[in-house]
């Protein structure tokens, strides 16, 4: 039975898994879940994932719910190219695990906080943006960008964990690109090392990266129009 993939491309980890599936030609049945319509809160979906989150895979009855676990499982099961998640070199594998553990409370947490405050809260909850929280997350994310440059990309490494692309790069770029939806991409664009890495990963994952990020580009257009309208209203 074909692998079933439940996702919403507005979700950063959903995009990372989607790009990986496409890049590695792993066959799957797409099962889109519209978060904005609340489909993740339906009784039917909760039977699959009681946490009401995406992404999720159903591999012939084996259900897995966390993006990092999903990526590692797929990489090993389908015996993909070793650079994605090294199996023959324990230290190289540990480097990929290192970033994937780091990103939870750093790249993902802070980028997600900015996106939540600038997009989700005012749109879905009709609440005011908590600007102190935005600024705190922005400052922390600037430190993350510094970490990417000075630790993960040090010694002129082209990718986060070495000389070739890995699962870590997919997770990292999808978190940073989420900010493009709310005009916050300058957080990393001002850093030439990190910007070069972003461009490198985008080129390496084309055309799947562009396909996965169409919804991000649409959200950016909507956000830009709303922001301009708010600024004009203040004049």
UniProtKB/TrEMBL annotation:
| UniProt keyword NADP present | no
Its domain of life reads Eukaryota
Q: GO biological process annotations for this chain's record? A: glutathione metabolic process
Q: Where is the GST N-terminal domain?
A: 1-82
Query: Where found, per UniProt?
Result: Cytoplasm
GO CC, sorted alphabetically, is:
cytoplasm
Spell out the reaction equation it catalyses. Answer: RX + glutathione = an S-substituted glutathione + a halide anion + H(+)
UniProt xrefs under SUPFAM superfamilies = GST C-terminal domain-like, Thioredoxin-like
Keyword Cytoplasm appears in the UniProt entry: yes
GST C-terminal domain boundaries: 89-223
Keywords of this entry: Cytoplasm, Transferase
**Which molecular function GO terms apply here?**
glutathione transferase activity
Its family remark reads: Belongs to the GST superfamily. Theta family.
Put simply, this protein is called Glutathione S-transferase theta-1
